[in-house]
Write a structure and sequence with these properties.
The complex is a heterodimer of chains A (about 110) and B (about 110). Chain A is an all-beta fold and about 110 residues long. Chain A has no helices and 11 strands. In chain A, strand 4 and strand 5 (about 45-50) form a beta hairpin. The termini of chain A are far apart. Chain B is mostly beta strands and about 110 residues long. In chain B, about 0% of the residues lie in helices and about 45% in strands. Chain B contains no helices and 9 strands. The chains are: A mainly beta (about 110), B mainly beta (about 110). The interface of A and B includes residues 32, 46, 100 and 104 of A.
Chain lengths: ~110, ~110
């Protein structure tokens, strides 16, 4: 069966520090991969999606970047975090129909 | 993907059916209607999807109008654990597009 791993679950980082969040999927090949952010009390904002290795589409200009070095690995990065980067970050995958989400990373930038 | 419109919030009594409406008047022929829900501090969970026929699974039923301009998600016997934000999404088949964009959703509060 397919599973998605996202870590860490919580993270507190100082302003100006780098960020790397990793997401991996097991049990499927060539999935579509997604990164979302949810600010406190707000909806889900699509940040990046990828249809294949090295193929990244950015939905919102921001302080973040994404990479897909392997078929089932999706990484969200920042060189210098801002206070406004705080939020709940979710990774998701889909193949043909529904999407499946990880448990999320709650990032607090202080 | 077509824009969807949902009421911002709804209340439902425990044990009663919860009927969540969604308007998608600009939906195109290759777009499916998907429903997800998000319980507080968790990732969204897929519920059901359909194209034009009504669908039912172990979680819910989906009723799509004949003109496909609106749909209703039905939770037949709502429980307190069904309290969540419910998202209705119109999304093209994966053959035509891969984005998955969420709107504001409906906050469903199930009350005892």
């Amino acid at each position: 069966s397919q599973t998605i791993h996202q870590w860490p679950a919580t993270l507190v980082q100082p302003v100006g520090s780098p960020l790397s969040l990793e997401c991996t999927v097991e049990g499927t090949s060539n999935p579509n991969l997604y990164w979302y952010r949810q600010a406190a009390g707000r909806g889900l904002q699509l940040l990046f999606y990828s249809v294949g290795i090295g193929q990244i589409s950015s939905e919102v200009p921001q302080n973040l970047s994404a990479s897909r070095p392997q078929d089932r690995q999706f990484i969200l990065s920042s060189k210098k975090l801002l206070l406004s980067d705080s939020g709940f970050y979710l990774c998701a995958w889909s193949v043909t129909t529904e999407a499946f989400f990880g448990q999320g990373t709650r990032l607090t930038v202080v | 993907d077509a824009k969807t419109t949902q009421p911002p919030s709804m209340d439902c009594a425990e044990g009663r059916a919860a009927n969540l409406p969604c308007n998608h008047s600009t939906i195109s022929g290759n777009e499916y209607v998907y429903w997800y829900r998000q319980i507080h501090s968790q990732g969204p969970q897929y519920i059901i999807h359909g194209l034009k026929n009504n669908e039912t699974n172990e979680m819910a039923s989906l009723i799509i109008t004949e003109d496909r301009k609106s749909s209703t998600l039905i939770l037949p016997h709502a429980t307190l654990r069904d309290t969540a934000v419910y998202y209705c999404i119109a999304r093209a088949s994966y053959l035509y597009g891969n984005k998955l964009v969420f709107g504001a959703g409906t906050i469903l509060r199930v009350k005892s």
